[in-house]
Amino acid sequence: MKRSPKTTLWIGVYLLLVFAPLILLFIGPRPAGREFWRELSVALGFAGMALMGLQFIPTARLPFLANVFPLDTLYTFHHQTSVVGFLLAMAHPIILFINNPYTLQLLDIFNAPLRARAAVFATVAVILLILTSVWRKALEIKYESWRAIHDLLAVLIAVMALYHMFNVDYHMSNPLQRSFWGLMAVIWAGMMLYIRVIKPWIMLQHPYELKEVIEERGSSWTLTLAPVGHKGLTFMPGQVAWLTVQRSPFSIRQHPFSFSSSAEHPEQLQFTIRELGDFTATVKDLPIGERVYIDGPYGTFDIDQHAAPGYVFLAGGIGSAPIMSMLRTLADRGDTRPLYFFYGSQTWESIIYREELESLKKKLNLRLVHVLERPPEEWTGETGFITTEVLARHLPEDRAAFVYFICGPLPMIAAVERSLEKLHLPISHVHSEQYDMA
Prior knowledge:
Helix content is 44%, strand content 17%. It has 11 helices and 12 strands. The strands form 2 sheets. It has a 6-stranded antiparallel beta sheet. β1 (208-216) and β2 (220-227) form a beta hairpin. The longest helix has 30 residues, at 175-204. The chain starts with a helix and ends with a strand.
């Protein structure tokens, strides 16, 4: 896939920040007499700390990053590099202990120097952060509680680790190294300030009002919002936003949903939400006039960033919400390009937007293919799941020229991607949005 100049730029900046402390180890003055293994442990520790520290950035939903990289890619990258950073950081003390067992005394939190105790506390905090993140659902930790714990542990790790590094004062005696880590501390603090203060304050100045709650099929509800005292926001069809409902924007309770309305009508925003428990179970009871705060739009899952002679949409369940935004937008624009929509649902009665999809066929050059897991007796359409065979029966001969958008549960996305791969479609033409980001 060809990368855009912005993508290449930000990847380069990220790599520079990760490797900068290692570069400074080589170009800066180094005291003589340090053995190889000790220097290696320090280098790995620096690299691990840089990687873990930079995790403040992908989760901050900075517009200049979130609109360049797919959101699920940013979150996946955050999860994976956090683990890599932890392993690199852990290699630092492990190598020291193996190379010189005498250093095991530094684990004595009652008698060891304060800088060593800070490193121990930081390590314990990292382990707790990873365990509560990986097994949050298994431990039945509510999202809001986990997010508060996650933030507190992240700040504790940063403070303790920096205290340890600056007070060891060996390589950190290099002014360039100290300046770099001072800059990193400013970046981390800036990210926290942006996430917890600046962004909520901006949202507070741009409230929305709930105008309508529309009951849809499939235990789903559409919220219609209108801006209060401002012009509203513009978005691209298929993008996502975080909603804060019945809370201050300074609250940590936010929920990501895709826009389902047409991008041609930013004065009236819609989000379709399926009842799955917790917050989503309360959507149908929200009072008209309720204040809602929106953080967005974000993401690259949209037709405007991926021009093509035609589009193929593949969705399962509530994954149809961003697809509807795209279809409604194309209809409002009078678009005549060929469109294919493969929509997987459990039953005929659970198909969200069923009637509107039929009416859109009159406005668009749209071929609609429903795939039902439990079809009625008289059903003559596709059954089961969206497979390679189903796709091959309905897609045109020139299907390789089309751009594909997939949205739905993670297993469905994985299966459909494998089916598209079997059809030998260009990977650069396939885009997915996962409904399990945060």
